[in-house]
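Service request form, structural biology core

Requester: graduate student, group of Dr. S.
Request type: structure prediction, single chain
Budget code: on file
Notes: please return the result as structure tokens.

Sequence provided:
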Amino acid sequence: MKLDHVTRLGSIGTLALATSLIASAALAETAPAAPTTTANAQAVAPTFMEKISVSYVGILAGPSVAHPLSSLQPDENGAMSEESPVTLISSVSAGYKITDSIRIGPMVNFDYIPVRGQQMILRDSGIRANLGTLFKAGNFDLSGDVRGYAPTDFTEAGQARHLLGALRSTQIANYKLGESRFTLGVAAFETFYAYTDQAADARRKLRVYFAPSIAYEITPAISASLMWEQDRHYVLTRGWGNRSPADIALGFSFDVTPTVNLTPSVTIYPNDTVNADAAQLGMLIVAKLI
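Core staff response, request fulfilled:
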């Protein structure tokens, strides 16, 4: 079967994307460096390898709750299509420490389809600048990153877009409710696209993602979260529209090791067809490799 299309991410794709940004930032945090003085500069200066970090984020867009052993993803109405196989949406990124909070490096994005013969597909990749904490006051903190994408999706559908490149800005805000175990959060990003003159006018120019959430810390290594997601895009010939219907996702996050975090989740669309056929299983995998 030909699978050189752009695989449908499904609801878990956007949920895990926002969640992975938060989880990746948490895993990438390191203890602040000791103040450098003339006397100890040589002793505390980090080596090149100590300034390098490598992380992996995997998003398993899985089957429905009603058919957990299926090799296909459900859509918002519970229907399954041969064009939407179960897929592990993956990203490997490296960062070089520029300052205590800023890391810059390459990112490689790819899809691994573990079913129906297996296949690995390179997606648009590029460079990422992790800006770390942008603002912090009391129980509130704001972090973010900037990403530049090159058209490295060489599938037939990928090349048919005539994409020149894309630029994305991400913001993650969290507010811990006093001394409680609850945290309110918002994940958002904006992606701007540039095309060649050969691209159709129907190509999207701007994508905007917004996801408020609430999380409860069960233990320092285990938490539960509820998230509502809205994913919209702007198309020159049609104006604003939904990239996918709004959805609600319940996740359960736990640390397998200090550098590996798993978040199984269930995502539903709040419409008239909410049932086990339309509810989608997923898994977020975040690992700090270096």
